Amino acid sequence: MRTDPAHLIDASAALLGRLREHPPLVQCITNSVVTNVTANALLAIGAAPAMVDIREEAGLFAGIAGGLLVNLGTPAEEQRDAARESVAAASVAGTPWVLDPVAIGALPVRTALAHELVAARPTAIRGNASEIIALAGAGAGGRGVDAADSTDAAADAATSLALAHASVVAVSGPVDLITDGRRTARIANGDALLTRITGGGCALGAVTAAFLGASRDASAGGAAGDLGERTAGALLADPFVATVAATVVYTIAAELAAERSTGPGSFAVAFLDALALVTPAEVIARAKVTVTDAAASAPGSETASDAAPNAEPATARA
Amino acid sequence: MRTDPAHLIDASAALLGRLREHPPLVQCITNSVVTNVTANALLAIGAAPAMVDIREEAGLFAGIAGGLLVNLGTPAEEQRDAARESVAAASVAGTPWVLDPVAIGALPVRTALAHELVAARPTAIRGNASEIIALAGAGAGGRGVDAADSTDAAADAATSLALAHASVVAVSGPVDLITDGRRTARIANGDALLTRITGGGCALGAVTAAFLGASRDASAGGAAGDLGERTAGALLADPFVATVAATVVYTIAAELAAERSTGPGSFAVAFLDALALVTPAEVIARAKVTVTDAAASAPGSETASDAAPNAEPATARA
Amino acid sequence: MRTDPAHLIDASAALLGRLREHPPLVQCITNSVVTNVTANALLAIGAAPAMVDIREEAGLFAGIAGGLLVNLGTPAEEQRDAARESVAAASVAGTPWVLDPVAIGALPVRTALAHELVAARPTAIRGNASEIIALAGAGAGGRGVDAADSTDAAADAATSLALAHASVVAVSGPVDLITDGRRTARIANGDALLTRITGGGCALGAVTAAFLGASRDASAGGAAGDLGERTAGALLADPFVATVAATVVYTIAAELAAERSTGPGSFAVAFLDALALVTPAEVIARAKVTVTDAAASAPGSETASDAAPNAEPATARA
Hints:
Three copies of one chain form a homotrimer. Chain A has about 325 residues and is α/β, with parallel strands linked by helices. Chain A has a single domain, classed as Ribokinase (UDP-N-acetylmuramoyl-L-alanine:D-glutamate ligase, 3-Layer(aba) Sandwich), CATH 3.40.1190. Helices cover about 45% and strands about 15% of the residues of chain A. Chain A contains twelve helices and ten strands. Chain A has helices at about 5-20, 35-45, 60-65, 75-95, 110-120, 130-135, 155-165, 200-215, 230-235, 240-260, 265-275, 280-285; strands at about 25-30, 50, 65-70, 95-100, 125-130, 170, 175-180, 185, 290-295, 315. A ten-stranded mixed β-sheet of chain A has the order 2-1-3-4-5-6-7-8-9-10, sandwiched between helices. Chain A is globular, with a radius of gyration of 18 Å. Chain A starts with a helix and ends with a strand. Mean pLDDT of chain A is about 90; it is low at about 220-225 and about 295-318. Chains in contact: A-B, A-C, B-C. The interface between A and B is medium-sized, with 31 and 34 residues.
């Protein structure tokens, strides 16, 4: 499927509209620092959050949820069991799910759990560069939630992770990088204030699960700007496209919020407002997306994009 | 006792003043999403929050608290034990307590716990329509925290729950419905933005516990607008009145906040400000309360209000 | 070392600058109400928060963290084990750590744990007057997080705690009192709105751990206003100075925020902004610090300050 920047941007706007018309129910198993901001971000964007993270309920809920986030930020014992239950049930039910391997690398409990869960093939994996490198087995991870590595340094790790687990991998950073192992999008939206509030990355994992939920519902068709009906349906149902859409909308909301903020406190407030108020038209007007297609290339060779027909970096900037 | 709208509104204003003069200590056993906003809402309105929710402390604390909230949103194992301890101790000590059966219905752990706890006769039960219907055994519950049923659809379930457990039952919705099985109040204040932030319903449970705490202290008398001293004391000490008061004050604060908000982020901030700043005079000026008295009617027959002397719906709107 | 008010104020400004240049990694084992605001306060001031509070990871992390906070607000079983692990590891690694004995006194689990942990000699202990009195074994504690006692009533308890465990003890209140058993500083900055939001005290514990982390890195020297290089290095590396600095900067940020707030909701937002924006120059311009030196006095005799050469209360007000 062609996924040039213009298509990705149109699809981002279309999925935002769809998500708001049919709010997906998003189950979050997430860390104690960001539960509140994560739920608020989901409510703001238009989704329905449900933090069902206890044993004997988490799995059951994952079977009926529209999307699932498993974030390993504070994986206490009961939550680890809930994560295992939910991932198993999501796999059976076909619920799209996102793994966020927070701060893995040196910390043994979450690192082992991340490797266990990733084997169940998350629909998407979201992390910073250090986390993605650590999950791919290519590095030692960062210190806490800080990325010690740049987004581009994680490109090879992201590609090999994506191919190994048939997942979309999203690497957060000043420029976000999203790949399914073949296609790689870079998104240059966002604002540094996102790194000065808690949940700036973690809530994006939940919003990604929401867009994946909206995407799953989208295969039946629906308006997607200038795209034809059939193309639009296939495009909107593509997890790579949905993951790109989540990041595009989220980082554009951050830009809108930063214009109205004087510091991290007011930014956090304005960001929730912006998630609720950002329009599909603003998404189209502000998105900064570049795509590389390495279809014909070997895993990890995303720099060899010249070899593939559609592999010329293409940029759409408003 | 006569509880026409004017009396309920005067009592709401009076209890707000009393709560601020003598801040009740409110123990909250609540879910991980809303602990922070719940504590902040209590502090803002003028109460003293205490989130004591661990084994071997929760029960002890319930014995000295002015009010207790048990919210089942994320009932991990240790918290379930703490809830049981606290409810037992509250019953012995006479501490008023509120049960919020979040998302019960399909989820087995919390549903079983809700049925276990409700048998201990909560002073008040707060939920959305689907939760109240599920707790009354009359339906399957909603999906997550969303109500799939309307407030009025839950009126029969609320009445039968109230009569079965000698509880006041509060059903949150666009129009809030509160009943003790005989008297039913409907409160038309509030704003839809309350459903776009986390804790919009859950924090009301805690604020209800705070008003019940203030109410318990109120039987000794105190000013209640135009009411006589003795009438005022009995009125303010009535859990039905206190539950109505909590909802009236809370939803009016939401209206004041909505007037100052551009989205859910700024609403959440303005709402805490409004809880702190709302005056008894504003409560009296803005309250929209209707009362039905079904004293002579059978359980579940709140629509047969014509049969009872005071059963004509009476409305006071400012 | 002389630590008159002017030196403390210069050092507060210098440590703030140093913290922002070299963000310390601060591990927080804290209560469920304030995890989010604590992490946000650390991010705002310029530090890097990490809420690693599970078994088999907490200890490991304490060995590499720049500072550690152990707050006993909601000490569930797994968190208690994590606290023990972390304190043991911090002691071995020399990681500075802060104990916040929230609401100890009548509640048995946290009270026993506080007494166990304090024996491991926290670098600093932060609490309200009732908590400090209870930890010193001199009283029964407060009700919940409210202090039933005044800051000055806790002065003797603070001094004896400090001397018994070689800790700096910080008592929060309208005037904050900080002592290492010999020197006592009183800080008259702050705003009552800090008591109307959750985390007003708890987040200060985390910020204190951040300043202790910055202080540990500071012994190699660095600019400290008009102080000489060597003096500056020793001054900045002094845990008493770092604890004073944390309170000075934090309470000045509260003042700046209060000037921009209409209630507790907007204050909480403005406070995070102020923590991010407050400058060393503002710290110097606004700090209200008094110092008493009881070097020659016996424990608990801080009122006998006339007996010591440098013991005259000295005040620097901008």
